Amino acid sequence: MGKKYRYIYILLGILIFICLGTVYSYSIFRKPLEKAMLLSSTQSSLPFITFLAFYSFLMPFGGKLISKYHPKAVMIIGSIMVGTGWFLASFSKNIYILILSYGILAGSGVGIIYGVPIVVISRWFPEKKGLSLGLLLSGFGMSPFVTAPIAKKLIDNYGIFTTFKFLGISFLIILIIFSLPFKFPKEEAEEKKENSISISPKEMLRSKNFYILWTCFAIATFVGLMIIGITGPVGEDIIEISSSYIALYVSLFSVFNGIGRPLFGYLSDKLKPSNIIMLSYVLIFSASVLVLFLNKGSVLLYLISFVLFWINFGGWLSIAPALTSKFFGNKYYSENYGIIFTAYGVGAIIGNLTSGIIKDIFGSYRLVSYPVMAFVLIGIIISRKLKVN
Length: 389
Hints:
By secondary structure, the protein is mostly helical.
């Protein structure tokens, strides 16, 4: 496939990420799972937390596979794991089987696939890396716009477990077929000239910038993944929006999640690293303040606050890879970003456990604003210490 056909990779990558990003529709699954399995709020968050943790912690392993094997082969392996995990989740008799199938198996598959389209497309578009990756990553962020209404319809008509089965079969077929064309370009001279920085993973781990960026990313994902997991329950329990409308709102928020990726990717090229982080954190802090005022019928506040949360979470999925490239170069990018991405898993675990515990103890998700504001203030302080080479 020549350069004039390279845009097909972006299109296929977006479609692949729409499938993989169905995890962001988990709030649609959460209430039906609580009802079917008699789960508490904390228990129902465990499959979601496990999925996100294995997704992020398998990223470094996926980065090593990309450097050793053909992109297509790595993507097919991950596709089989994703489809099989979703399918096996349909046979869950208890929460532990759901964690093993959906959380561990499907989550690991996403971790293995995720970095491949990013690396392939970054090599096909060395002169338009920010824009091309922003467009690609919008597929993952906007996935609930497509998948949340589909999942809601399937759950209403066929039940939660049949929905897992249908989605598993669909993902298995779609992901394998769309993975087949992926390959690296033959010419990589432009890419090698583009960024002279070449910091290895071992060198990166000795850098202060790594620990600051990792911590800031963990804080952003702590907020974003906690909010994604409770978007539906907050709308239903606090605002008292009907479940039929919640799926539409989740779809709307996912659009802003998608918009946040190219938007913040573009801003990351224009602003100092500490300033782009400051901008994101100030918006997150503002959204957290609004959540404290949510009550029955306050739909407008709900929309404004959760749009801000979702757009910033999407933005961090562009900020983190952009700053990884800026600080540590492109030569070891897939491995370096895989290590940085473990912050996503830590944020997922702490964030979702925090929201579940707060709900179980205090009876409302509204109070999640307090730990969010505290962590954001810490992030603002330490981000001022970042140094650009």
